[in-house]
Every structure is written in structure tokens, then in C-alpha cells.
Specification:
- There is one protein chain.
- The protein is of the alpha/beta class.
- The chain is built from 10 helices and 10 strands.
- The strands form 2 sheets. Strands 6-7-8-3-9-10 form a 6-stranded mixed sheet.
- Strand 7, helix 6 and strand 8 form a beta-alpha-beta unit.
- Helix 3 crosses helix 4.
Length: 258
């Protein structure tokens, strides 16, 4: 199971305009963990995720998947293991039809046609979009595009699932459906998101990024109970931990409830 391990050491990325996206990040995610990456906009979440299967190359530092260092030569092997769902589904959907997009990965693995069909149909059915398989992606709604992009990654049967804002654009039914799928994915999951209720439901460990660096790394509910940390990193507790603003008494002047 060592190929399910993600290890990052001293990772730094500086964009061509001189902006530092992440700096000095080191972390290790082991097999079967569900890990959330949270932080305010600009904290470096997407930059970090895009290094995990080589969409961005580090300015310094290293990424290792299991025993395999991520290099230009190992990219094909790494990308068979690590499936990344981008923040913008338009970055993943580029084929004439939804079917073609979902089939792209398995076809590139050289699988026989019947196996490609089986994987595509299972992924489309899992995401509830089998009826859309012949549609061009540009004709889909935002939520349908999100589902199609997720199906395109699931059809590759990745050992490690990396997701950037996976619930964006999904209606409540689609969000619940995705939550069920993620609960059933027993391999390693790394999820960058502003949906902190998803984090509370799915991720036992949370890494907080702030200013491109790791501000905290620990059990999710310890992170969410640390009010000073959340305030410093411009975060709030999940709605499920905030209580009802109408029912919960608040203290006013002189200790009176208002």
C-alpha cells in the first residue's frame, strides 16, 4: 500500500510574476487518510494540490508518491495513481462529448474497448449523469460540468483522490450524492475546500494554510475548536458547529441575555 502515501518536503512555488504561491510546506498523508486543506483565498491551497501529480513543478522541494519521486520521467506512473479534480471543471472537459471526456483517461491507459465502456458507464451512473453522455460539455450547467469532471477522474480508478473545491456548483442533492461517493472511496483523499461542513463530515485531519505556509495540522475538530487560530487565518467554524443564532442565547451588557 506504499503507493498510496503522499509525502511533500520543503515545497516552494514561485510564479513567473514573482508571486510566492507556497513556501516551505512539508506534510505526509498515509494510506486511507481523509485530509482537508483549508484556508482563505490566496492561502496556497490550489497551488499545493497542483503539485501532487505534476501539473505544477516546484521551485524547490520535492513530492513523493509512495516510493516514487515526482519527476518528468515518473509523471505517467504518478498520474495513474493520483487523480486530480480541478477547481474549474472547464479545465478538465475538452472532448466533443461527456462520454469522450470520461473515456479519455482509460483510453490513454490502453485498455480494451469493453473495459473502457464499462468504466465510463459506471462513472456516469455513479454521478447520476448517464443521460448526458452524448452531450457536448459546453451545453452542460455548472453542476453538470462538475459531475462530469468528477466522473472523468473516477473512471481512472485512482488510488489517491485529490479534489479542489469539489462541491462548488452542486445543488443540495448533488452535494449529498458526492458526499456518499467520497465516504465509499476508502483510499487516500485530499480535499481543498471552503465547505467546512464537508470537512467536518468527511475528514479526520485538517491542514490549515495561511500565507502559503502550514499554520496548523491536526485532528479536524481540534482545529475547529481553536478560535484564535481560525480568527488569525480568517476562517470560521462550520455551520454545524455554530449553533442556531436565534435559539442560542448571547450575553449582552451586564451579563443579561439579549
Amino acid at each position: 500500500m506504499s503507493h498510496h502515501i503522499v509525502e511533500v518536503q520543503g515545497l516552494e512555488h514561485v510564479y513567473p510574476d514573482g508571486t510566492t504561491g507556497i513556501q516551505g510546506i512539508s506534510l505526509k498523508v498515509v494510506h486511507g487518510e481523509s485530509v482537508a486543506i483549508i484556508g482563505p483565498n490566496g492561502a496556497g491551497k490550489s497551488t499545493l494540490l497542483l503539485h501532487l501529480n505534476g501539473y505544477l513543478a516546484p521551485t524547490s522541494g520535492s513530492v513523493r508518491i509512495g516510493e516514487v519521486p515526482l519527476t518528468r520521467e515518473t509523471l505517467p506512473e504518478i498520474r495513474r495513481t493520483v487523480g486530480v479534480i480541478f477547481q474549474d471543471p472547464d479545465d478538465q472537459l475538452f472532448m466533443p462529448t461527456v462520454y469522450d471526456d470520461v473515456a479519455f483517461g482509460p483510453a490513454n491507459l490502453g485498455l480494451p474497448r469493453d473495459e473502457i465502456d464499462r468504466r465510463v458507464n459506471e462513472a456516469l451512473s455513479l454521478m447520476g449523469i448517464a443521460s448526458l453522455k452524448d452531450k457536448p460539455p459546453y451545453r452542460l450547467s455548472a453542476g453538470e460540468k462538475r459531475r462530469a469532471a468528477i466522473a472523468a477522474v473516477l473512471s481512472n480508478l485512482p488510488d489517491i483522490l485529490v479534489m479542489d473545491e469539489p462541491t462548488t456548483g452542486l445543488d443540495p442533492f448533488g452535494r449529498r450524492q458526492l458526499m456518499g461517493i467520497l465516504r465509499g472511496f476508502t483510499h487516500t483523499k485530499i480535499i481543498a475546500t471552503h465547505d467546512l461542513d464537508l470537512v467536518a463530515d468527511l475528514c479526520e485531519r485538517t491542514i490549515v494554510l495561511h500565507g502559503g505556509s502550514v499554520a496548523a495540522d491536526g485532528p479536524t475538530f481540534e482545529i475547529f475548536r481553536n478560535g484564535a487560530l481560525l480568527e488569525e487565518c480568517h476562517l470560521e467554524k462550520p455551520f454545524s458547529m455554530q449553533g442556531c443564532p436565534v435559539c442560542s442565547p448571547r450575553s449582552g451588557a451586564g451579563g443579561q441575555r439579549v
